[in-house]
Design goal:
Blueprint: E1 6-15, E2 30-43, E3 46-49, E4 55-57, E5 69-75, E6 79-85, E7 88-95, E8 99-102, E9 110-114, E10 121-130
Antiparallel strand pairs: 1-2, 2-10, 3-10, 4-9, 5-8, 5-10, 6-7, 6-9
């Protein structure tokens, strides 16, 4: 847990190529990612989902009312991520490998994690609050 102001950068690129690694010329994507955010708080909590019940993650326990960046990386199985923000409560999305969500002007106020029935899942997260 950190209370100092830091700069967080998400830098990368999304591209497509055929199986040989060459540009396929069919449907292509070339999206550059260069997002920068000043963060007043960041933490990387890990959650072991040992129950089929939904786990409501308490932002208040971290001393936060909202977060602007959320990274979710499950191992052992998928996780259903529930998000609450200014546009609605507990909107669901399934994360099999990785989810990176940044919303600087409309931050998330809560999130939850649910594993598949009977499957132990560990979820590494990263949360940050915009300064």
């Amino acid at each position: 847990m950190t209370r100092l102001s830091d700069t967080i950068q998400l830098i990368g690129q999304v591209t497509t190529a055929d199986a040989s690694g060459q540009s396929s010329g069919v449907v292509t994507a070339d999206v550059s990612i260069n997002e920068i955010m000043s963060a007043s708080f960041k933490d990387a909590p890990k959650y072991d989902l040992v129950s089929d019940a939904e786990l409501d993650v308490s932002l208040a326990s971290l001393g936060l009312a909202s977060i602007s960046l959320l990274v979710v990386k499950p191992t052992g199985g998928y996780v259903v991520l529930g998000l609450t923000g200014p546009d609605g409560a507990n909107q669901k999305v399934t994360v099999t490998d990785l989810a990176v969500l940044m919303s600087k002007t409309r931050p998330f106020t809560a999130f939850s994690l649910t594993r598949p029935p009977g499957v132990p899942v560990t979820v590494q997260t990263f949360v940050a609050q915009q300064a």
